[in-house]
Amino acid sequence: MKKLVTAIAAAAMMFALPGVAMAAESSQFNSPAGTTVTDTTSGVALAVSGDINGDGFIHVEVTDKVASNVPEGVTPIASFEVTKDDGVEIDGQLSFVFSVGTQYAGATATIYIQHGEDGNGATETQTATVAADGTITIAVDKLSVFSVVIDESTIPAGGATTDTSATSPQTNATVAPVAMVTTVAVLGAGAAAVALRKKVNE
What we know:
This protein is an alpha+beta fold. A hairpin with a 6-residue loop joins strand 1 and strand 2. The radius of gyration is 23 Å and the shape is globular. It has a five-stranded antiparallel β-sheet, with no helix packed on it. It contains two helices and nine strands. Helix 1 runs antiparallel to helix 2 (175-201).
């Protein structure tokens, strides 16, 4: 019986290890100002995460610049300029999470983008729905000026009731695998406890 208890506990620990790794996984930036920056006027914040290579920093700054493709007469609630040092290369795509506030939950948001030196001033737009927690998430592979526009006419009358985001903003790891690993660990621990209790009663 003792060997069985030991085997169960060891198996539970083995299955739990990937969960610890997933929870701890996080891309690191070496920006001296950090990569989450808040516009103190509007309260809008931008958090940047992802994989980068090389020596140098990713810089996130609030800016008065407005992407050139913002329609005339439209005023963004905030604009950010994101740049990198010459020694930095982006590995794949970066995740940008704009925190605009739960008052916009369910509304349609448009991020107007004007690319910098790497994009020769080219422009593009990305459209997304503001999640229930007041965030907008997009993926980019170039650093640029990002101007955030919210169509307030699209805010649901009762507000958004569900969070449509499927990943954690910090780790980009889905919640389901972590939950599954945690469940296995708990079941293993429970089985070990029952076996030990039975041995004590004997």
